[in-house]
Write a structure and sequence with these properties.
Keywords: Signal. Helix content is about 20%, strand content about 25%. By secondary structure, the chain is of the alpha+beta class. It has a domain of about 80 residues. A 6-stranded mixed sheet has the order 1-4-3-2-7-8. Strands 9-10-11 form a 3-stranded antiparallel sheet. The protein has a 3-stranded antiparallel sheet with strand order 14-15-16, with no helix packed on it. A hairpin with a 5-residue loop joins strand 15 and strand 16. Helix 4 crosses helix 5. The longest helix is centred in the C-terminal third of the chain and has 24 residues. It is globular. The termini are far apart. The N terminus and C terminus are likely disordered. Bound molecules: 2-acetamido-2-deoxy-beta-D-glucopyranose (7 copies). One 2-acetamido-2-deoxy-beta-D-glucopyranose binds next to loops.
Length: about 375
């Protein structure tokens, strides 16, 4: 049995596309996030997808969302959302829920790698799958193109479709970020979204190649770069690309270490995770300090036993390093001491990010004028 064709007239956005011959209709166009990172450094990364089921659908459980996106671990879903590890799979999923998925850059654009997939059921249309099940994170055109479906009317029940959710691995303004794929709700503004995610309006406009904040459409799929916590992770560690944005945590080193990120310090905050690993966890200490322990050395300075990654070349080992931070310098994030790694990459350059993005924005505006002229 074939699925029904999508109904363009039921969508004001698609209707607008028909009227304007597609010229001004970004929301109905397949969203593509620039993703130029190349191998071996980082053609893949972990991206976040913000999933908010459409109004009127029954509240999903965490287990249902995990199944929809084929997430390997319930804990990873809790971690991405900053939820306590004791939260059961049967708990209702908060809306929106952040889903962490691998992203692959290819040909200058990014899409979630191999996952999620969806098995077509009787009565499904590609449009209903895109806008219903996947809450507008993709369009039916995205799904058709990714699965080489030449005629969207001809999808067979039982057919397995790859759902290519747009994502990116690119640094922004030279800084590593985690890209969040976000569907702009009706009534939202770029300024409001920037504030909600601790970003700048100019950054969101530039990253999404939007000339103007007024151009935001309800349902538009936006690339929202999230600032991540700085760390002392060694470049030779297996988890050297570990990036944790504010409001979430991550389990690493074979579930032996748990790292959080808080926007009050913007420094990775790691501790040994007890009883989560299925195997032996090596000691995580700096001399007599445990991972995550802090001691003050003077009235202004404190030393922390920080996480420096894990290795498994000869045997499984958790690396640590002492970092010092200045607690008197109000308003400044503490600086990690070891200079070998990318320890304080975020702090001084964060201010430059906005500047760079503003100039990018100006260039984009000029290009827009040139094209019109
Ligand atoms: C969905 O429901 C929320 C809260 O009831 C409302 O604010 C929002 O406008 C609704 N969105 C749509 C697309 O109907
Ligand atoms: C990324 O690649 C696209 C197409 O290959 C190009 O137009 C764009 O300028 C590149 N962006 C960056 C930041 O390199
Ligand atoms: C896509 O479909 C076309 C026409 O049906 C076919 O020629 C082509 O080989 C297909 N490509 C892939 C990658 O399956
Ligand atoms: C960090 O996350 C918390 C909790 O999720 C949120 O209240 C706060 O606004 C966020 N701060 C920034 C700068 O994103
Ligand atoms: C040091 O870390 C260990 C293990 O995380 C913890 O049990 C202990 O309370 C910490 N001590 C101090 C002084 O923070
Ligand atoms: C370390 O390597 C050994 C042998 O390759 C492997 O069996 C083990 O699972 C690895 N441990 C971790 C934590 O990756
Ligand atoms: C700890 O920091 C020192 C000093 O910067 C550095 O030489 C060393 O490689 C670091 N150790 C690890 C495990 O990252």
């Amino acid at each position: 049995m074939a699925a029904m064709p999508p109904l363009p007239a039921s969508s004001p956005i698609l209707l607008c596309c028909l009227l304007l011959t597609g010229a001004l209709c970004p929301a109905a166009r397949a969203a593509r996030f620039a993703c130029n990172a190349t191998a071996p450094r980082a053609s893949t990364c972990q991206a976040l997808i913000s999933y908010a089921p459409p109004n009127g659908t029954a509240t999903a459980t965490l287990a249902a969302v995990r199944a929809l996106f084929q997430l390997r671990s319930h804990r990873a879903l809790l971690a991405a959302n900053g939820l306590p590890l004791s939260t059961p799979p049967t708990a209702p999923a908060p809306t929106p829920l952040r889903v962490r998925l691998p992203c692959l850059c290819s040909g200058g654009a990014g899409a979630t790698f191999q996952r999620p997939t969806y098995r077509v059921r009787a009565g499904d249309t590609l449009d209903a799958i895109a806008r219903g099940a996947f809450a507008g994170l993709v369009t039916y055109q995205d799904i058709a193109a990714a699965n080489n479906v030449s005629d969207p009317n001809k999808v067979a029940v039982g057919q397995q479709l790859w759902i290519p959710v747009p994502c990116s691995c690119d640094p922004v303004g030279g800084q590593p970020v985690v890209h969040l794929t976000y569907v702009a709700p009706a009534g939202s503004s770029v300024a409001g979204i920037a504030q909600e995610f601790g970003s700048a309006e100019e950054t969101i406009l530039a990253v999404n190649k939007m000339p103007d904040a007024k151009g935001l459409l309800a349902g538009q799929v936006l690339d929202v770069p999230l600032r991540t916590c700085g760390s002392a992770i060694s470049n030779t560690a297996i988890d050297r690309n570990l990036l944790v944005p504010n409001g979430s945590y991550i389990l690493t080193a074979n579930n032996c270490v748990m790292c959080g990120c808080s926007s009050s310090t913007w420094q990775l905050d790691c501790q040994a995770a007890q009883g989560l690993s299925s195997s032996f966890c090596p000691a995580a200490k700096c001399g007599d300090m445990f991972l995550g322990n802090t001691s003050s050395t003077s009235s202004c300075e404190s030393r922390t036993c920080s996480y420096a990654g894990y290795t498994n070349s000869t045997s499984f080992a958790i690396l640590t390093n002492i970092t010092t931070s200045n607690t008197c310098n109000a308003g400044m994030a503490p600086m990690a001491q070891p200079a070998h790694s990318s320890a304080f990459r975020l702090e001084p350059a964060w201010l430059r990010w906005t500047e760079l993005v503003v100039s990018l924005h100006v260039v984009l505006l000029c290009l827009g004028y040139l094209r019109q002229g």
